[in-house]
Amino acid sequence: MAHPKRRQSSARQGKRRTHDKAKVPTLAICPATGEYHVYHRAHWHEGKLYYKGKVVIDSEE
Asked: What DSSP state is assigned to residue 60?
């Protein structure tokens, strides 16, 4: 197995790790229900599935 010939500096290590962080998901407010939900994702509200402000599935039918 290959091993590095020299030790990598902490500055170089930090540069490599700049993109290794958890991202906070973007939240949106549904125009139909007024609830926060994850952007570009369908969400349930009172037995109905909403996407882009429209009812996709109504479980009460």
From this structure: T
